[in-house]
Amino acid sequence: MEPDQPENPITVLLVVAHPDDIDFGSGGSVATWTTQGHRVVYCLLTDGDAGGFDEEVTRTDMASLRREEQTAAAAILGVDELHFLGWPDGRLYVTHELRRDITRVIRQVRPDRVVTQSPTRNLRSMYGSHPDHTAAGEATMCAVYPDARNQFAHPELLADEGLAAHTVAEVWISHMGEGADHYVDTTDAFERKVEALRAHKSQTAHMDDLRGRMWAWGRSQAKAAEFGPDRTAEGYLVLDTR
Fold this sequence. Notes:
Layout: E1 11-16, H1 21-35, E2 39-46, H2 59-76, E3 81-87, H3 96-109, E4 113-116, H4 131-147, H5 155-159, E5 170-174, E6 182-185, H6 190-198, H7 201-204, H8 210-225, E7 233-240
Parallel strand pairs: 1-2, 1-4, 2-3, 4-5
Antiparallel strand pairs: 5-7, 6-7
């Protein structure tokens, strides 16, 4: 399989549950896309207020801290458009209201591509199946189809906010492991990915050999993609949603 090649500039919207989810799963891809001239936008459904290990930090302060960390990490990867929706960490469910809020962002950003988390539980990966992650993936898929493209869904978005319907051409599901059918070669962006992850100090400062962990994971993806030795990659399942 050949590495992902540059294309005409497009708009990519990443929708995930928590700050740092993008940087762990797609940080190398984001850095690659922004370097190629694509517009990349983040949508964080929660502020990650249930994360961290310091009991002296209030949950309100943790939410503010994680927004700051995510904003700094995004800047490292070339992203300055972030939407924080403020849903409660650890209590994310697929509701009409969550679908509406994601639909709002899709209609505002009008992306060609949406990248999100898997809506299905991976029985081989406890960490990859965090319930907030699967809820984020399912709610985003519902927002892509049918909500965002249907002018009669969430009619207040059009009537009160002037947000017209928008059809997303493709959805990329991240963290697919053996289920991936497309890979982005992230070798040249690898160090920026690690730097972005280190910006999430409240979540990663305690991790031994963060770079080594990310290198091993990236190498496993590159091996699956048959990119050759000393390459790293991030894998996706790509869906045509036109």
